[in-house]
Predict the 3D structure of the following.
Amino acid sequence: MSTSVLIADDQDLVRAGLRMLIDAEDDLEVAGEAVDGEQALLEAGRLEPDLVLMDIRMPNLDGLAATRRLLENGDSPRVLILTTFDRNEYVYEALRAGASGFLLKDMPGPQLVAGLRAVAAGEALLAPTVTRRMIEEFAGVRHAPVPPGYEELTERERATFLLVARGMSNAEIAAEHVVSDATVKTHVARVLSKLGLRDRVQAVVLAYETGLVRPGAD
């Protein structure tokens, strides 16, 4: 079954390039295109894509506002932010709104396709390491309260949460705790559920905003 993708970008050449790249893959297909945030919301409601590739800087309604509105609905598609900048406060705000990660427009085609597949599979794009640097920069100035659900986490779940916040994969966490990948997946799912988080990206943002993980920490 193919993963359907809605491309939202105000540049014709960018949309055309992304369409060619995505349509060349057997397991991916372009559901439609949008030239601004308003059209992205309309097309997402009409086409019900699995993923939305959302540019940040668009006329009428920018990608940040469109992402916020789109993800207010619990059964909305997953959103990946497209940007030409790897350190952009707007990208960070989109991650806070629930976006599953971001892709740079100059990223090599195979990397972009791999990112789409990863997010379609329920993962979140925490790589490259610039993502962590960006979150550290913008979240480090915030002082959000620790959510009540944090007290409900077991000792192992808290340890898993902190490793997720450092950007570690399930395989890396499994090696750290000497457990199976399946066990880590269970712990991560419980952490996200208890904290009321959509995915791993929101877990990273929360950890830095609350000070549970501090900028620059290993």
Summary: The chain has a mean pLDDT of 86. Residues 143-210 form a domain with the Arc Repressor Mutant, subunit A fold (CATH 1.10.10.10). The chain has ten helices and five strands. The first strand starts at residue 3 and ends at 8.
